[in-house]
Amino acid sequence: MRSKETERFAAQIRALKDRAEISFEELARRTGISSSSLHRYCSGTKIPTGYGAVHTFAKACGASNEELRELHRLWALADASRSSLTAPGERPANVTGNEHIAPSPASSADTPVPRQHPHRHRRLVLAIATVTVLTATAAVVITSLSSADIPNTPVVSNSGATARMRVFNVEERCRNRGDRAPGCSIGLAINPRLNYDAQNVVSHRVWHDDTLTADCVLYDGDEVTDEIGTKSTRWYRVRLNDVPRGHAWLSGIRTRDNPALPTCVL
Asked: What is the pLDDT of residues 237-258, one digit of tens each?
């Protein structure tokens, strides 16, 4: 049974396609997404596991920046709704594992299983967890992980240098809010070299203008694209007291600061 969030997301992308008057075959050629996947997106029988496919679909249909922001919001709600209806460790029925734009690999399960990705140039954005169930599930699983469990976890030099950094949210509607709305929260990664999605975030959420303490910077992590298309492969290791290993990773796309910090090395 599809949720109302899924229906709203599907209706929005159908409207964009209908307005553009593009066939599924032509849209597949322009986006690199299979026409069968595009059919399922528009019918609501399948939700993309990453926003990159949604962004590319919408741009091919001529979506404006405002429409892209609204589509990102609808996708995040639909994705969170799907996650909340899936039992921990159970694979969503509509995830095929091959729906991202090549060469981006898709998420394979709701449990955050670390994966290596040889191709980093992909259109991904921050996955926004909008329901408590998703955050709680991630928190339970993440507590069992250690740096030895995750391949290619950066080793940080012990220089003792730290810097205070402010979180920045590119979405103006979130910057202007006075409350800490779940839909405006930002996830921090477990491992900056892995696919940055809802399975690779700690339970701790941050909001625009929050202040974090960073102790090193990684310049060649997973490439992240924000809601307006800006890209970055820079990640800052930030100290947190309420997550496993005492740290997480903030994407450089989510701050306007660029402090002098030692490089995180492998």
From this structure: 999 999 888 999 999 989 999 8
Pairing between strand 201-206 and 211-218? Answer: unpaired
Mean pLDDT over each residue of the chain, to the nearest integer:
74
Token digits for 211? Answer: 């202040």
**What is the number of other CB atoms lying within 10 angstroms of the CB of residue 118?**
6
Q: In angstroms, rounded to a whole number, what is the distance separating the alpha carbons of residues 183 and 171?
A: 11
Q: What is the 3-state secondary structure (H, E, C) of 53-76?
A: HHHHHHHHCCCCHHHHHHHHHHHH
Look up residue 124 and give its DSSP letter.
-
Q: Where do we find the tokens 């903030």? A: 250
SS3 at position 152: coil
Secondary structure of the chain: what % helix, strand, coil (to 5)? 35, 15, 50
Report pLDDT digits (tens) over 39-65: 989 998 888 888 888 999 999 999 998
Distance CA 161, CA 261 (A): 7
All structural domains of the chain, each given as residue ranges with its CATH number in brackets, are 4-84 (1.10.260.40), 132-254 (no CATH)
What was the pLDDT predicted at 49?
81
